[in-house]
Amino acid sequence: MSSTADEIAAFRQLQAKLPAIWAAVHEQPRQPHSCLIVPSLSFDQEELQKVKGVSFYEERLLFMLMRLRRPGVRIMYVTSQPVEEDIVDYYLQLLVGVPPVHAKRRLTMLCVQDASPRALTEKILERPRVIERIRQWIGDRERAYLTSFTTSPLERTLAIRLGIPLNGADPELLHLGSKSGSRETFRDAGIELPVGFENVPDEDAAVAALDALKRDKPQLRRAVVKLNAGFSGEGNALFTYPAPMPAESSARQTAIRAALHTLKFSAPEHSKVEFFSKFRQMGGVVEEFLEAEQVHSPSVQMRITPAGDLHIISTHDQALGGDSGQVYLGCRFPADADYRSLITERAYHVGEVLRSRGVLGRFAIDFLVYRQAGTDWRCAAIEINLRMGGTTFPFMALDFLTGGAINGSGDYRSRTGVPKYYFATDALVSPSYRGLLPQDFLEIVIHHGLHWSPQTETGVLFHMIGALSQFGKLGVICIADSAQAASELYQRTRDVLDMETHAERTGRGELHSMFDDFPHLMD
Predict the structure, then answer these.
(1) pLDDT for 523 beyond 50
(2) Alpha helix segments (H runs only) across 234-315
(3) pLDDT tens-digit readout, 308-346
């Protein structure tokens, strides 16, 4: 391409083919078609490296191998590092009604053999022979599309090089999913959001914004400072106002600036200097920290199809942790019925705005719901994740495995009519789990009967298995017939792994205290 403008024009011309390809694939699932999956985390790499075991997050989309249950689909799954064959076989055995050997013939795993801390798509683009190999595998470009974890100019370039459309948001629209763009979108949708300021360019502006918040809300105790493109809450910092505060603005700002050293960062590696250096690069937001006797963090997952249809897919209650209390740890499906309609109604308004701007693909909207005892729930929209996320693939797995649907109240029933619930996390972690090879881990799972049972439609699904040996970190999805049973299944899984690895009870990972810190997840 001679310029970015030329690339954008070529991309939009290519994207115009997606609705017809999408319709053909879904109307004739037995007809041959090709799905290229590139689970690239195309974010700011400095921020991304603060997530433990992030190189193995490319394994999270392996649940999409369940698309192989459609006899016409061919999948190529590209990764930076090799995925153990035992891990691939683990996912293929979850397929119902399709022999794993038949599915495996339609699957190509391609590794670029590059463990450097860069986006996978960038690695692909700098390897012409890899691109040519993918082109040859695709075959008929009129029945093929690209799926990625997120979209960026890198994925746009890759789609053009391959000549297939991208099933995701146009990178030119990604501002809508930034922290600042989220706040602007919420205003356009006419829904509640925390008092605050977006498009804050630097530390001086952040101090002024913190001052303005305190001036307008003298009772405010804390505020949140967020990087525009933080990942999984790792770009957030919690600010506590010093007390007492001076009455005059310049004195207040002096006190606020002096108190910036007390910022609590979501990422332990962040320092004040590093944080505001990154802030100058990408900007951010400053907003009030909402506090009440009861505060929960639900989210709504949505999808805009290539045909332009807007769907609410699922709701979750999220567990957040870390020093700032804002790092995503896990989720429970579905969100509490007491406020489920409150968040889905507002999410739909946001989805309408995004659809009018041309967004397509999967995205999620995070909320805070809060109340004082004896009062009604109130709601504030926090941010839009214009991509797949930690709540995407658990529901995807449930849906693929049980073939059910969500009813009008937001509850899910399998094809047999049984209600289904789950608890999911990317962060079951303990130093004692380090050294577990995939083969060792799968032996433990089978021996203790923790695996998925198609007969009962309950059990545990695992992901990021490759991260165990180096990081002692694992993802789990515990599916059961009640929220209580799903929570108990998680605890049993944790206890089995602790027992098998002789984990010290006092040295267990962050998620081990999940249900002490978030008792509502047990309800």
Answers:
(1) no
(2) 249-259, 272-282
(3) 999 999 999 988 776 656 677 889 999 999 999 999 999
In CATH, the number for domain 294-522 is 3.30.470.20
DSSP code string of 213-253: HHHH-TT--EEEEEETT-STTTTEEEEE--SSPPSSHHHHH
User: In the beta sheet, which residues pair with residue 474?
Assistant: 428
3-state secondary structure labels for all residues of 319-341: EEECCCCCEEEEEEECCCHHHHH
394, 463 contact by CB (below 8 A): no
pLDDT band at 45 (very low <50, low <70, confident <90, very high): low
Dihedral (CA of 369, 374, 376, 378) sign = negative
Query: At CA 144, angle to CA 302 and CA 132, rounded to 5?
Result: 125
Q: Which residues contact 13 (CB under 8 A, 6 or more apart)?
A: none
On whether the pTM is more than 0.85, the answer is yes
The tokens describing 36, both together, are 């290229």
pLDDT at position 522 over 60 = no
Q: What stretches of 427-513 show up as alpha helix (H) in DSSP?
A: 438-447, 468-471, 483-501
Across all residues in the chain, what is the average pLDDT? Answer: 89
How confident is residue 223, by pLDDT bands cut at 50, 70 and 90?
very high
Which pLDDT band, with edges at 50, 70 and 90, does 53 fall under? confident
Cα 113 versus chain centre, distance = 25
User: For 253-280, b where at least 16 C-beta lie within 10 A, e where not — what string?
Assistant: bebbeebbeebbbbbeebeeeebbebbe
Rounded Cα distance, 142 and 165, in Å: 9
SS3 labels along 163-212? CCCECCCCHHHHHHHCHHHHHHHHHHHCCCCCCEEEEECCHHHHHHHHHH
SS3 427: strand
Domain boundaries along the sequence of the chain: 4-168, 195-288, 294-522
Residues 209, 293 contacting (CB under 8 angstroms): no
Contact indicator for 252, 246 with CB cutoff of 8 Å: yes
d(CA 62, CA 128): 25
- What does 383-423 look like in DSSP terms, one character per residue? EEE-S--TTHHHHHHHHHHH--EE-TTS-EE-TTS-B-EEE
Q: What is the reported pLDDT for 510?
A: 46
For the chain, give the number of residues: 523
Query: What is residue 371's three-state secondary structure?
Result: strand
194-204 confidence digits (pLDDT tens): 999 999 999 99
